[in-house]
Amino acid sequence: MIEVEGLTKFYGAFPAIQELSFNARPGEIVGFLGPNGAGKTTTMRILAGYMPPTSGTARVAGFDVVDQSLEVRRRVGYLPETVPLYPEMSVFEYLTFMGSLRRVPELEDRVDEVLEQVAMLERSESYIGNLSKGLRQRVGLAQALLHKPEVLILDEPTIGLDPAQIIEVRRIIQELGRERTVLLSTHILPEAQQICGRVLIINRGKIVAEDSPGNLQAQLAGAERLVVAAGASCEQLLQLLGGLPGISSVRAGSRDGEVEVATVPGKDLRPLLARTIVEAGVDLMELRTSGLSLEEIFLQLTREENDEQAGG
Amino acid sequence: MRNVWIIASREFRQYFISPIAYALATMLYLILGGIFFINVYFGLETGQITPDGRIVIGAMVTILLFATPAITMRLLADEYRMGTMELLLTAPVRDWELVVGKWLGAFGFMSVVLAVTWVYPLILHRMTSPGIDQGTLVAAYVGLLLMVAAMLAIGVFISALFRSPVAAFFVSLGVMLALWIVGSLASSSGTMGQLAGYLSFVDHYYNNFYLGVLDLGDAVYFLSLTALALFLGAQVVEARRWR
After folding, report:
1. What is the DSSP string of B181-220?
2. What CA–CA distance (Å, rounded) separates A29 from B225?
3. Which residue of B10, B83, B94 is in closest CB contact with A97?
4. Which of A81, A304, B159, B184 could form a Cys-Cys staple with A155, CB 3.0–4.6 A?
């Protein structure tokens, strides 16, 4: 549905994105994750047909974004980061205007339908200028859904919403993602973890990692980590656990009586650890696994990249 | 073409809810009304009203020089400023359809504003016998519409260059005044004079249409100026995508 090959965009001499390549299939929700200024918006603008790339190709729904821009634009629903709306128009007028530009059949019924979908039907006559940020975001989303696009491109769709609205918007996106291709950008990591089937981590205009949130975590964490808290001092615990088979390292944890145990991948050592501690006559207080959170992975990846840049 | 119509009709309706348009129409009608009143009043005093249907046109043209930039300044600049341009340029609309649609909406609005001023010659026609020369009046108005079309197209083009409507206003005003004043160079001899005469609004309007002469050359001048400005406007919108 989305095929990106060697996409590069320069603003003057500044490379916003460099040699970006990725794909997205129908029925897939792909999360675009990265710090501010990483090139997320630039990529999305290119895919939505707003601006051409400096080099490289991008095809959306089988059409080239430069040569067949109109065909691409017909098939894409786009919610820009700034959620541009006309404040002096009513919600209904606005959606009717956008829908008529997109030749939506039976437009008025369809407008009611999408307003229903984003739970805005009762605000249809309100002026957009009087709406709160969260409601505007929903109007923007309604606009992107209006023509039943094959591909949805959503730039930070949940920014500025309150927690209840965030959950609601995520639910809508998940629902849409069943049949359509959704590309969404975010810098809220749990969000990507929760709704995306695949995550692309982008930093300084380059993709630094690409996988499902689960795999990314496993791959980067390498080995499993366990946190053990017991009624003994750190030294005692280090001594007790250090010699066990299947453990690659033990080090002191964040507080006294707590140690972090790194284990060989693929083996659950929790029963062995519990037994060892209890048999030594020590009280076991806590035993839990601690994988790297997506947040840590993200920071790790973007930091490494930055260090390389600084060094080179 | 349908997109042109959709954009134009939105823009046209927009004028009727925007304060600028009402302020402009009020100012225009107040000034024209004042001029008309003074003319008729003193005409009655002396017992002699000049049966000239173009009674308000001279003043109107001067006001339009300032009014059309005010009408066009926000057309594209505001879309850039508010970010809604991103929405329009990612909708399946060609760049030229957007530019022409904006211009057509403004032209529709100005046509309504100008149509209302037709009441002055009508009143004058009833007050005088044998009445006014309808032919001259029609020619003057046809010329006026053509000139307004060109002025609005220039305004749309310049609006595409800026993010700030105020900047677009002053630059448009500058260009219109230049096209106005250049006519005064036309009296000088040589190619410069000829060129100035060819570029001038004044020469193409006051020397022909205003006198009741419908000249194809003058119509072509205003129409080609309109087309050129709209073409440049579409080019600017296209070029701004690349930045």
Report:
1. HGGGGGGS-HHHHHHHHHH-HHHHHHTTGGGT---HHHHH
2. 50
3. B10
4. A81
Rounded-to-integer distance, Cα A180 and Cα A183, Å: 10
Alpha carbon of B88: minimum distance to chain A alpha carbons (Å):
8
pLDDT per residue over A211-248, tens digit each? 887 777 666 555 567 788 888 888 888 888 877 877 77
Mean pLDDT for chain A overall: 84
> Considering chain B, what percentage of its residues have pLDDT values greater than 70?
98
Instruction: Give me the interface pTM, i.e. the ipTM.
Output: 0.87
Give the closest of A52, A74, A84 to B83, CB-based: A84
B90 with A50: Cβ contact below 8 A: yes
Does B82 touch chain A if contact means CB atoms closer than 8 Å? yes
Contact A70 B94 (CB under 8 A): yes
Q: Please, which pLDDT band fits residue A311 given cuts at 50, 70 and 90? A: very low
SS3 B122: helix
- Is B239 at the interface with chain A, CB within 8 A? no
Domains of chain A: 2-219 (3.40.50.300), 225-289 (3.30.70.100)
**Interval B129-185: pLDDT, tens:** 777 788 888 888 889 999 999 999 999 999 999 999 999 999 999 999 988 888 777
Do the Cβ atoms of B86 and A85 come closer than 8 Å? no
Q: How far apart are CA A258 and CA A239, in angstroms?
A: 13
Tell me the residues of chain B between 186 and 225 that have a Cβ less than 8 Å away from chain A: none
**Residue extents of the structural domains in chain B:** 2-241
Interface check B7 vs A, CB under 8 A: yes
